[in-house]
UniProtKB/TrEMBL annotation:
Classification of source organism: Archaea, Methanobacteriati, Methanobacteriota, Stenosarchaea group, Halobacteria
MF GO annotations: DNA binding; DNA-binding transcription factor activity
The IclR-ED domain, residue ranges: 68-246
Record flagged with keyword Disulfide bond: no
Domain of life: Archaea
Source organism (scientific name): Halogeometricum rufum
Protein name: Transcriptional regulator, IclR family
Residue span(s) of domain HTH iclR-type: 8-67
GO term, biological process aspect, one: negative regulation of DNA-templated transcription
Length: 256
């Protein structure tokens, strides 16, 4: 049974204002007031507080978020071991294969992108920005993580996905195939005209995340899709796993 909680309205207002500042692109206090359902004086007080804490900056009466969010986001991203282990290998592979590669970690029921590498010819899978969450059961980078999870945890995630029993059963069969193969291939199912192959990064029983190579379908021939890119991805995953197995992360984090 999930624990009951009481929603804290003040905290909800803070996050609503932060998100609206991002969405409205440097709004004035009046513009924010029209979108958040609070009085102008309340919005102003929230803005001044956020400004004092360094999360908002005011310029000519307009407000924008500060780079303090980047500082906090970077710290969170660097707390994931795979970020340290995968950055160099995927940057190198991206240049070799001339394709877009990204790193994902599990956060709740989502696979979230924490790093991307692409050459000037690579195609971004929309939306092309870090921190984008994808449900584990809906995309290859999530399915390879889901397939490696303990059965009880996997079923809990699937049961909360709003899928009917038939769809859940098909997904379970797909996850079993992914588990046996060690890869998930997506030929335009998640994003039209986008081909992708994903592999889990795992050391022992611990799942650190997944790597994804993606490109447009028309750039691929059968050999590249069936052999070359999957094989190179597997080799890169092995390198990342090797790094994860030998890193002293306590010492590594002290240098970031």
């Amino acid at each position: 049974m999930s624990q009951q909680y009481k929603n804290i309205k003040t905290a909800e207002n803070v996050f609503t204002i932060i998100e609206k500042i991002e969405q409205l692109d440097q709004p004035t206090c009046s513009e924010l007031t029209a979108h958040v359902g609070l009085s102008a004086s309340s919005v102003y007080n929230y803005l001044r507080t956020l400004e004092e804490w360094g999360y908002v900056i005011r310029n000519d009466g307009r407000y924008r978020l500060t780079l303090k969010f980047l500082q906090k986001g970077r710290a969170v991203r660097n707390s994931y071991p795979i970020m340290h282990a995968a950055t160099e290998p995927i940057d190198v592979l991206s240049k070799v294969i001339d394709e877009y590669i990204s790193v994902f970690v599990k956060e709740g029921v989502h696979a979230v992108m924490i790093h991307e590498a692409n050459s000037h010819h690579a195609v971004h899978v929309p939306p092309p920005f870090l921190g984008e969450p994808f449900h584990l059961g809906k995309v290859p980078q999530g399915k390879v993580i889901l397939a490696q999870m303990p059965e009880s945890d996997r079923r809990e995630i699937l049961s909360g996905n709003g899928l009917d029993s038939e769809t859940t059963e098909r997904l379970e069969t797909e996850l079993e195939d992914i588990r046996e193969r060690g890869l998930a291939v997506d030929e335009g199912q998640s994003h039209e005209n986008i081909w992708a192959v994903a592999a889990p990064v795992k050391v022992g029983d611990e799942i650190y995340g997944s790597l994804l190579i993606s490109t447009v379908l028309h750039r691929l021939d059968e050999r590249r899709a069936n052999r070359e890119l999957p094989n190179l991805l597997v080799q890169t995953v092995k390198e990342v796993e090797h790094r994860l197995s030998r890193y002293d992360f306590d010492d590594l984090y002290s240098n970031w």
